[in-house]
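WARN no homologs supplied; continuing
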Amino acid sequence: MAWIFLFFAGLFEVVWSYFMKQSQGFTLLVPSILMIVSMIASFWLLSLSLKALPLSTAYTIWTGIGAVGAFLVGITVLGEQINAGRVIAALLIVSGLLLMKMSSPN
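OK structure emitted
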């Protein structure tokens, strides 16, 4: 169950980062509220996963899901630039996440 909590915590990290961008520096109320709610959900789910997973594993995977997810949202939703260097960097992050998961004792 801890891995499921961690996965959704990472997804909510992507959501709050997207709404942080949409809030335009916290000048728009609805995106600002959605950012805060999704941030609370992300931290709460992360805290639940930490009951069973090592901090180093959980935090690394949580931030990795957020980083790669934000990268994908930036490209697919926000029309940000895609190039070989950015794709390779994202693949290296995913490789690191897989290695972290495979080497975790839980």
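The mean pLDDT is 94.
OK
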